[in-house]
Design goal:
- InterPro entries: DGK, Diacylglycerol_kin_accessory, NAD/diacylglycerol_kinase_sf.
- This is Diacylglycerol kinase accessory domain-containing protein.
- One of its GO terms (molecular function) is ATP-dependent diacylglycerol kinase activity.
- Keywords: ATP-binding, Kinase, Nucleotide-binding, Transferase.
- The chain has about 250 residues and is an alpha+beta fold.
- The protein has a domain of about 140 residues: Tumour Suppressor Smad4 (Sandwich).
- Helix content is about 20%, strand content about 20%.
- It contains 7 helices and 9 strands, in the order H-H-H-H-E-E-E-H-E-H-E-E-E-E-E-H.
- The strands form 3 sheets. The protein has a 4-stranded antiparallel β-sheet.
- Helix 1 packs across helix 2.
Amino acid sequence: MDAQVSYAFHSERKLHPEKFKNQLVNQSTYVKLGCTQGWFCASLFHPASRNIAQLAKVKIANKNGQWQDLDIPHSIRSIVCLNLPSFSGGLNPWGTPNPRKQRDRDLTPPFVDDGYIEVVGFRNAWHGLVLLAPNGHGTRLAQANRIRFEFRKGAADHTFMRMDGEPWKQPLPMDDETVMVELSHLGQVNMLATHDCRSRSMYDPSTPRHQDSAEEYDDNEDDSVTEGEEFRKFGAADTFKIPDEVDISHLS
């Protein structure tokens, strides 16, 4: 869903770069494309035969390293795979599961150094707008260190994908062949961050992993809450600026 809108945006900008001169124009163009592609009325404009579950067989490597099928609800039209709690300008699609879900489904907050990819699903554009709410999140599908999409001949000859903001049109099989796309955790590097940065390490002693109070967590998987903090853009200046008391000349 979001990759198709992004692909149309990039294609239009390549053809008419003079029309994209400021952020307001860019954002309004995104909204326009989302509307014209029918993602706000996805059940009418996008047949169920082209949903993720019908286009691909999805497998994940669980926390023990064993491959297993991932059951994708038939209403899911978009899947987002994350390795940090930031998406589309600083939104957090995964959020923080409440203690009950952490226990029952073996889920954790989206730590940046746990080696896991958070897999989140969305039904339509309205579902995506839930992320704009202070405690919104998508449908949590799984956490895994590897995920594999196996595309076979189906109702579409292509789909849309996006990696780190760069979209492309992915051809799908026209015969009995299989197109496989696999994402896996490769490595990590250290980064500077202030104490109030949203991204947290699983080894940070100040990071709460299990709390008794559920008021900061969600009680409903699809349409309730996650973190009670304000949204801020990951990488924005106020998030990563060096504190005034730190002498930058002594940093090594």
